[in-house]
């Protein structure tokens, strides 16, 4: 564990106390972030609370205690998702749900996930202090295993709650220690049967909102503490294979080669400018590549690579996929090699509804924050919930855009302003 760890001291050092009003207390948020950060703290000041670990469970237990102190009715479903419920004036109405996750990537940061959970909990604290009771029930949720570090398959808790799980595939998962999904569930007091039974009646929920760090630099570049997420990009993975002819690197003339890597190289270099043709929120990345036979003195006969393609709008993402396939075919024709491709993942993107964004803009205006909209390139629990229910997201400024890293940082001033915007937003939709 990191010696002399004091996340609270770092957070509070430059905090502006005037931001603590309307029942929202920056000091309390800082203390709670600190308490969570001590669970799974690494030697270099990072976080290690992978999904379905004892560390994730301990962090949930800590927050469950805070929920109970507030008088919330607390329950945990068969996937380990935790819900703290505050009854509204009209208990027959569906609930507004807000929250995030407490698990981390190995040696991750201390804001990705916990900030969203604590922001949602702070809203209840503020209502308790000011004597406000919402019309609708309000629930704070902690989703299990959002990051997916345990089984390379994330957003697990939100998928379980919405029924977006292929149980045959889920049951086949094995972690890096060779432990099956069933064994891991049992070790955390759950089971495959309880996990499969975690599906919730979504008619009980009116809408969902998630506060999260940006994990990018756009808010920092605009010097804004909080931003409105315009949509959550859905990834589409394209596997592309170039097949040429392997040969001796010394004896094969340049004019007679069928070099698969040369074709792949041209293809990769040309991808960079394609997203801008379809959308200002589209992106495409080649992050995985295999060269065969991978010898120093052998002309590559085959290259297999994967393209990660994302946008917040499905139609422009589809257009980008077509452009990328066309580019692959052009490169293969130019260098006399064959090209095959297949789609290996297709996740529907979730654009945020215009009415929701208008409520968010009004909430920002109440706190004199310019309402900037920005897309989320990363997946979040709101992506899963947003397929079924109205969903909103707020981003809080990230220092240098760093995330999934011990250096991940959002100032307490920005975090608290995010809670104020969340409060205004939830209260506005609660009155509808």
From TrEMBL:
Keyword hit for Metal-binding: yes
Pfam family, one: M20_dimer
Highest rank taxon of the organism: Bacteria
Domain Peptidase M20 dimerisation, residue spans: 234-332
Position of the signal peptide: none
Keywords: Hydrolase, Manganese, Metal-binding
Keyword Manganese among record annotations: yes
Obligatory cofactor(s): Mn(2+)
Family: Belongs to the peptidase M20 family.
Subunit structure as annotated in this protein's UniProt entry: Homodimer.
This protein's name: M20 family metallo-hydrolase
Organism: Halobacillus naozhouensis
